[in-house]
Amino acid sequence: MKITIVGTGYVGLVTGACFSDAGHEVMCVDNNEKKIEMLLKGEMPIYEPGLDEIVERNVKAGRLKFSTSIAEGTKFAKVIFIAVGTPPGVGGEANLTYVEQVGREVAENMTDYHLLVEKSTVPAKTSEHLKRTMRKYLKADVDFDVASNPEFLREGTAIVDATHPDRIVVGVESARAGDLLEEIYKPILAAGGGQFLRMNVTSAELTKHASNSFLALKISYINAVARICEMAGADVEQVAKGMGLDPRIGPRFLHAGVGYGGSCFPKDVDAFVRLSDAVGYDFKLLKEVQQINKSQREFVMQKIKRELWVVQDKKIAIFGLAFKPETDDVREAPSLYFVPALQEMKAKVVAWDPIAEGKFREALPDVPLETSQDLYECATGADLVLVLTEWDAVKNIDLAKLKSVMTTPVMIDGRNAFDPATVRAAGFTYHSVGRA
Ligand code: UDX
Ligand code: UDX
């Protein structure tokens, strides 16, 4: 089937590439000409393991095309996925400007039935606003549907998540829309397993917020337990292990640390809190999840201050600028808090990240930051190393060599990436999260 995807970001490009790899004919549209130019040259505007091979293979096979024109995309296919950004607005609620823009342009160009699919994470009830908007801009008297098909992709494993989904959730108002989406996902579900779930549109929109908020809740829960472990003299990693063996709890997303970041959890939890307020429910539980997450960074910062006593003129090496390993995405990354905060205290900061340096500089253009692509060079002369992402290169570092280049062997491990006994045996003063 022919499919158009509008928005070639982390989600749109991965989704489009995987649809074409499943045999569909896909046109990816983006209003960022630079991105489209890169894609037409076979260059990836984002880092996602395995994406470049899939894109190259399907462009060659003629199943994957790129364009900057929504009009062209509307003519190309009757199913159009909206995967444009829904960044947090000024007050924190999702900014739906771009979603509305796509709906308007598609409506102006439609000459026959189309199905618009919300792939971007949008607050519940967005589909009603989108339908109303499209009706205003329709030029021809044609029928259309709006559906919700939330994405559950994790950056760094998005290809695996897209080709081996646990579930495909679609929110539809007509059998026709449901059947079209079922046909699109049939080859993916056949190859990768997973269930196809049809429900009403608002339920599908809510499923995404409820899922992401639950995962964020799990992380804030174990981060709160980590605080108690430190006060009580327990080890949160052991506690998490003990909890996780209960299949009702499960071991994943019970990893204590400096808190969650990324383009989804912070935004989705915030949007869910606002949506709840809007429908008249005060979601205190989620507000506490946000509070715990925000305080985690300060909690780790206190460890740095306690260890150094005087931060001014000290050299601090930061391992990890992205919000997690295997991605170049720095949205809501802990580094966006620590780098400016430590520089404000007049510390000298040098950072290491294999792929996120460019995105960091884009995010904080006014923050001068010295970086190094070599961990030991980055840590040379450092009074303290702050670990913010658990890249394998960091976890497998040669601790003796690291110690030899540092002024004082001190490590604050914000991701519990190391075993305390091993690091201390290597002669380090070592602090982590939740391990007394
Ligand atoms: C986006 C949403 O932010 C997220 O909430 C949702 O779950 C999935 O889609 P992401 O792909 O990470 O996530 O967004 P981003 O990387 O910002 O990509 C959005 C793309 O849309 C960008 O390439 C941007 O150029 C493009 N875009 C934006 C358009 O093509 N048209 C617009 O009007 C606005
Ligand atoms: C998340 C959801 O996992 C995915 O289903 C959704 O579609 C988009 O948002 P992503 O944000 O890419 O994916 O990364 P994820 O691996 O979920 O990690 C999110 C954040 O939580 C990271 O900052 C990570 O460091 C943190 N995290 C994760 C923890 O602090 N502890 C954990 O145990 C797991």
Description:
The chain has two domains: 2-199, Rossmann fold, CATH 3.40.50.720; 200-436, NAD(P)-binding Rossmann-like Domain (Rossmann fold), CATH 3.40.50. Strands 3-2-1-4-5-6 form a six-stranded parallel β-sheet, with helices on both faces. It contains 18 helices and 14 strands. It is an alpha/beta fold. Helix 13 (335-344) links the parallel strand 9 and strand 10 (348-352). The chain is globular. The mean pLDDT is 95. Helix content is 47%, strand content 14%. The N and C termini lie far apart (57 Å). The structure holds uridine-5'-diphosphate-xylopyranose (UDX) (2 copies). One uridine-5'-diphosphate-xylopyranose binds at residues 6-12, 30-32, 35, 83-86, 98, 101, 120-121, 151, 263.
Sheet of most strands: 6 strands, parallel
How far apart the termini lie comes to 57 Å
Q: Please, how many domains?
A: 2
Share in helix: 40-55%
Write down the CATH class of the largest domain: Alpha Beta
Might you state the CATH topology name of the largest domain?
Rossmann fold
Give the overall shape. Answer: globular
Are there runs of 5+ residues with pLDDT below 50, and where? none
Bound molecules: uridine-5'-diphosphate-xylopyranose
Radius of gyration equals: 23 Å
Question: Strand sequence of the main sheet, in spatial order?
Answer: 3-2-1-4-5-6
In the CATH hierarchy, what is the architecture of the largest domain at level 2?
A: 3-Layer(aba) Sandwich
- The number of helical runs is 18
Identify the CATH homologous superfamily of the largest domain: NAD(P)-binding Rossmann-like Domain
Give the amount of beta strand, in percent: 5-15%
Secondary-structure class: alpha/beta
| DSSP strand tally | 14
Rounded mean pLDDT is 95
